[in-house]
TrEMBL record:
Entry protein name: G protein-activated inward rectifier potassium channel 2
Source organism phylogeny: Eukaryota, Metazoa, Chordata, Craniata, Vertebrata
GO cellular component: a single term: plasma membrane
Parts of the chain that traverse the membrane: 95-119, 169-193
Record's catalysed reaction(s): K(+)(in) = K(+)(out)
Main location: membrane
Family (UniProt): Belongs to the inward rectifier-type potassium channel (TC 1.A.2.1) family. KCNJ6 subfamily.
Record domain Inward rectifier potassium channel C-terminal: where: 205-374
Localization of this protein: Membrane
GO biological process: potassium ion import across plasma membrane; regulation of monoatomic ion transmembrane transport
Region (Disordered): 392-425
């Protein structure tokens, strides 16, 4: 009986634990996997509540494009432009191909020189002084390989020499000389172009780590700073900016990573730079700007990226150079300006690059440019008339009315009523 009670109590405990476990265990609801297009078309409030998507850069801060080409089936197109393909390869593959091309060429022609000597019977008359071989002192494949290297590289040590009694050898010598010159021109040209590429020149073209939005000449502007660290300048430098943001058309078509031009002075010529000292590039937020309806509170909610492109010719080589960078919403500071970096010294100007990325806070309305324009039009005042001070005046009037006692309000209301009755009489 004792064992039966113990067994029954253990069974009850186990059943109770299993019931508690069934009650407390969360129910795993498996959501159906949707295609990427369908996930993007979901309402924004649903997707944001479930997951906080991290903004993926289209262009990284160092200027490299964060795009990978996949499922490229027509790979033969790369071979049609073999020169560009070799130049675009990484250095380790380029050097490997460089060594392999020369080695294979030398081995190929060395094999042919050995076959000519073998077929003519020169190998059987090595010690015969009366025999005239095709190539003197060629006694095996190794010596034929060395003679091939001497012929193609035009070294000519003088120990192995082709004779005039071998017409097939003369023809092979002509072919190897011509093909060797072509191989030299092709491979040396690839190496020269790869070495002289101005990609490293872009490393000394710097962009500010943040972009800022503040008032300039009474207008809301988006600004960023560029600079050149070298004393040799970029000739005919020009700046461009693109807004990368997905959009959906009125017909319902979803356009991922849509590119919109950001005007940085194209019509006024301000986009053409004389980049001797760091310059602040400004974009006026007007009705044609994609930031026309974006306010300070709405900016962090936007999923956008600003890509800036600086182009020009390298003064030393004359080759075109391009530097790129980008800014996402977290790197755009509302209500800030850049710290000045240029100072006048004794006979020259000095640039302090320690302050190149520094900013300081300034008084800037938190409204969008559209709202500021509406306020200015209602007040019939120019936008340069400090809209922020206008808002401050409204706030001061409201606080003064709140500070007045109820009796003063009643008296004032009574006076207004008396004036109205007198006007009626």
């Amino acid at each position: 009986t004792t064992m039966a009670k113990l067994t029954e109590s253990m069974t009850n405990v186990l059943e109770g634990d299993s019931m508690d476990q069934d009650v407390e265990s969360p129910v795993a609801i498996h959501q159906p996997k949707l295609p990427k297009q369908a996930r993007d078309d979901l309402p924004r409030h649903i997707s944001r509540d479930r997951t906080k998507r991290k903004i993926q850069r289209y262009v990284r801060k160092d200027g490299k494009c964060n795009v990978h080409h996949g499922n490229v089936r027509e790979t033969y197109r790369y071979l049609t432009d073999i020169f560009t393909t070799l130049v675009d390869l990484k250095w380790r593959f380029n050097l490997l191909i460089f060594v392999m091309v020369y080695t294979v060429t030398w081995l190929f022609f060395g094999m042919i020189w050995w076959l000519i000597a073998y077929i003519r019977g020169d190998m059987d008359h090595i010690e015969d002084s009366s025999w005239t071989p095709c190539v003197t002192n060629l006694n095996g494949f190794v010596s034929a390989f060395l003679f091939s290297i001497e012929t193609e590289t035009t070294i000519g040590y003088g120990y192995r020499v082709i004779t005039d009694k071998c017409p097939e050898g003369i023809i092979l010598l002509l072919i190897q000389s011509v093909l060797g010159s072509i191989v030299n021109a092709f491979m040396v040209g690839c190496m020269f172009v790869k070495i002289s590429q101005p990609k490293k020149r872009a490393e000394t073209l710097v962009f500010s780590t943040h972009a800022v939005i503040s008032m300039r000449d009474g207008k809301l502007c988006l600004m960023f700073r560029v600079g050149d660290l070298r004393n040799s300048h970029i000739v005919e430098a020009s700046i461009r900016a693109k807004l990368i943001k997905s959009k959906q058309t009125s017909e319902g078509e979803f356009i991922p990573l849509n590119q919109t031009d950001i005007n940085v002075g194209y019509y006024t010529g301000d986009d053409r730079l004389f980049l001797v000292s760091p310059l602040i590039i400004s974009h006026e937020i007007n009705q044609q700007s994609p930031f026309w309806e974006i306010s300070k509170a709405q900016l962090p909610k936007e999923e956008l990226e600003i890509v800036v492109i600086l182009e020009g010719m390298v003064e030393a080589t004359g080759m075109t150079c391009q530097a790129r960078s980008s800014y996402i919403t977290s790197e755009i500071l509302w209500g800030y300006r850049f710290t000045p970096v240029l100072t006048l010294e004794d006979g020259f100007y000095e640039v302090d690059y320690n302050s190149f990325h520094e900013t300081y806070e300034t008084s800037t309305p938190a409204l969008s440019a559209k709202e500021l324009a509406e306020l200015a039009s209602r007040a019939e005042l120019p936008l340069s008339w400090s809209v922020s001070s206008k808002l401050n005046q409204h706030a001061e009037l409201e606080t003064e009315e709140e500070d007045k006692s109820p009796e003063e309000q009643t008296e004032r209301n009574g006076d207004v009523a008396n004036l109205e009755s007198e006007s009626k009489v």
